[in-house]
Write a structure and sequence with these properties.
With 230 residues, the protein is of the alpha+beta class. The protein folds into two domains: 74 residues, no CATH class; 131 residues, Chitinase A, domain 3. 39% of the residues lie in helices and 19% in strands. The chain has six helices and seven strands. Strands 1, 2, 3, 4, 5, 6 and 7 form a seven-stranded antiparallel beta sheet that branches. A hairpin with a 5-residue loop joins strand 1 and strand 2. The radius of gyration is 23 Å and the shape is elongated. The N terminus is likely disordered.
Length: 230
């Protein structure tokens, strides 16, 4: 087997998979008879959790079969085919699937709460208080003073200025693209709720510092306190 394919398989394994035994018996029948069995299962658990964390829709049975095929030197894809499949999935398939799921979620949200509206970019927001719209942001070089809470689609709180009891002060350009668009819709004193699709948030890069995973849509609740004009 060529080094290129081994490197690709190693990359996939690092992303994680469930414990895959070489014999074909189901996990229900696995008996850990010695320390090698136990550590093998522990490694599989860790890999499985990592994979689920990265992408819960990966076909685990196929991943397990691929690992067995590597051990048996009987892989179904050559180097180029494996590389193409991996890159296509990471650069196109994931984006398209994520976009479709986000669009469906936001469509359902707007149907259930008519106060939510969408922009052409895909931003979906609800304004609680417009604030002083005459003083709204007009220049991308302006700075904002605001409080916010950000959550993922599961409702898990990722970051909040209220938790740190601090107010965010930064140039508009430093905010995620979708949040830049959102705060332009209200003025100082404004209050809004906004869903930002992943492409307008942190995209495929995510944001480790606040626990945003790649391709993750975010919910922000924003209180715009002030605007520093430039």
């Amino acid at each position: 087997m060529k080094n290129g394919l081994l490197a690709l398989v190693a990359m996939l394994v690092i992303l994680g998979t469930a414990a895959c035994n070489r014999g074909g018996s189901s996990s229900d029948n696995i008996v850990m008879e010695n320390s090698i069995d136990s550590v093998s299962y522990a490694i599989g658990m860790n890999m499985g959790l990592n994979l689920f964390d990265k992408d819960s829709l990966i076909n685990i049975d196929v991943v397990c079969q691929a690992i067995k095929d590597v051990y048996n030197a009987d892989v179904k894809l050559n180097d180029d085919e494996a590389r193409y499949a991996f890159l296509k999935y990471m650069n196109f398939d994931v984006y398209e699937r994520t976009k479709a799921l986000e669009n469906q979620f936001l469509d359902d949200l707007r149907k259930s709460d008519r106060k939510y509206v969408a922009t052409n970019s895909g931003l979906t927001y609800k304004i609680i208080d417009l604030g002083d719209v005459k003083s709204a942001i007009r220049n991308s070089r302006d700075s904002v003073v605001m409080n916010y809470t950000v959550q993922n689609i599961a409702g898990e709180k990722l970051d909040s200025t209220y938790m740190s009891k601090k107010t965010l002060r930064c140039p508009l350009s430093r905010l995620p693209k979708g949040l830049q668009e959102a705060v332009r819709l209200i003025g100082p004193g404004g209050h809004m709720m906004v869903w930002i699709p992943s492409a307008l948030a942190f995209s495929s890069a995510g944001c480790d510092s606040i626990g945003v995973k790649p391709n993750q849509m975010l919910f922000y609740e924003v209180h715009l306190r002030d605007i520093a004009k430039r």
